[in-house]
Amino acid sequence: MEKSIKKYFPVFLLPALAAFVIVFLIPFLLGIFLSFTEFTTVDNAVFIGIKNYITAFTRDKNFLNALWFTTKFTFVSVITINVISFALALLLTRGIKGTKIFRTVFFMPNLIGGIVLGYIWNLLINAVLGVFGLDITYDASYGFWGLVFLMNWQLIGYMMVIYIAGIQNVPSELIEAAQIDGASKRSVLKNVIIPMVMPSVTICLFLTITNSFKLFDQNLALTGGAPAKQTAMLALDIYNTFYGRIGYQGVGQAKAVVFFIIVAVIAFIQLKITGQKEEEA
After folding, report:
1. Are 268 and 215 contacting, i.e. CB atoms less than 8 angstroms apart?
2. DSSP bridge pairs for 37
3. Structure pTM?
4. Lower Cβ count inside 10 Å, N or C end of the chain?
5. Could you give the number of structural domains in the chain?
6. Tens digits of per-residue pLDDT, 196-231?
7. Buried-exposed string 25-36: b where 16+ CB fall within 10 A, e elsewhere
8. What is the rounded CA–CA span in Å between residue 277 and residue 225?
9. Which domain CATH number covers 142?
10. What is the DSSP annotation of 166-222?
């Protein structure tokens, strides 16, 4: 059996490998190359070194503003989403009546597309602000908290389901033993439940960090970067640079490469730290 698997393994691997190379690897490497060129199409790319990167960081204030705005948004969203979803997961694993209904209701927002979700919340938020003669584009802080609220509303249910799965896998014997030893509920949570659900914490942190940094659809639909591009996140700023400014395709591509590096480094560090916590637990 093992000889047959080894014999035909390349046959089954080849389609997936070919798809990976054609769809991801080649465009990725081509994108890195184009970030060092000036171009309007791939055929007329002219190599100019790191000029695009210098332009992105020194001559384009929108990029640095988008980077700072995205960092603040990600920091707040990751904390609020994970804290609230974990609290809900604890609540819904206590045997409350109607738990399945609550889980379904909380998870449903994740099924709505980003563009649709952005327009829905744009209408709702503007309806409230309209009472005071304002809208979400009046001040950047309105857009910031609107995006945070939208992101929480969309992802809390999804993360909650993952945390519920982790909590339900905690051996009841451990909790009972801790309670017999006189441990308080807070102590049980801190020393038993949280260490045992670290795999779920790793997954949820990774998903919330990457999704927050890569947010595009909701940002486009909710604020469009207004006012004066102060609420444009990195993905939207890259889009506006590449498609909205003539001759800036190379700069947009350079921003995209920087964007990838930032997300990859942060995700790697997070996985490394939480992975160590899993081993310790």
Report:
1. no
2. 47
3. 0.90
4. N
5. 1
6. 999 999 999 999 999 999 999 999 999 999 999 999
7. eeeeeeeeebbb
8. 38
9. 1.10.3720.10
10. HHHTS-HHHHHHHHHTT--HHHHIIIIIHHHTHHHHHHHHHHHHHHHHT--HHHHHH
